Each structure stands twice: as structure tokens, then as C-alpha cells.
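Justification of computing resources. Each target in the renewal requires a structure prediction run like the one illustrated here; the chain below, 133 residues long, is used simply to show the kind of job we budget for.
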Amino acid sequence: MNILAAYQQGFGQMINIVKSAIFFSANCEASTKEEVKQITGIMTDALCEKYLGLPMAVGRSSKEAFEPIPRKIRGLMGGWSEKQLSYAARETLIKSVAQAIPTYSMSCFLLSLITSAISNYWWGSVVDSRRIH
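Resulting C-alpha cells:
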């Protein structure tokens, strides 16, 4: 019996084979991959794809996988003039903009670069020097 048919029957959900992809371990042999593809009817591999904005596989370097998120936040905060904003205004910007971007990512992974970028902005860190707080 086809495992996907059993899943569909058991859970009452339909599987769209056209939109489906398979993710294999690097240790999986090519013959095994082909056999699984033939049995399931799914012919595409999931290569470097994202799901819900997150990489499917992080691998050894999580910095590379999540680099776009801190880069986007640094770009946003770089445009804010911290000298003209009160602490209340900074807090509002951080909560409404900077922390809204990676909320889902941070719930799945610890992203220390984002935390440090937010802390540096909050405490008024400048590129060349740090302020005392």
C-alpha cells in the first residue's frame, strides 16, 4: 500500500504531488533517492528552498542561512536617527519594526546577531565606539 495514500485516508488530507518535494540527507545513496521518488511519485528534490521564510536546512553554518535577517534589520536601524529619538521612541521602533521581522525565525532559532544589533541600537552604540550605559 502506498504510504501517501494511507496518510491521505488516515488524516483526510490531500497531497498535491506537483507542489511536493523531498528532502534527502547528504548520506543518502542515489539509488535510494531514486527508489523513494518512484514509490512516492514525487520527482523533485528540495534544494536550498525556504519554507515560511526560513531555510529548509540550516547545515553547519547558521550565520549564512540567516544572514539576510540581521542585514535587513541593520539597514532599517541605520536609517533611524538615534540622536533625535527618546528612549520611548526607540523602544517603539524596535518593538514595532525591528522585532516584527524575525519573530517567527527567533521562535525557532537563537539569532544572537539580531539581539546584539537591537541592544547596540538601544544603548546608543556607534560604529567606531561604544557608549557607557
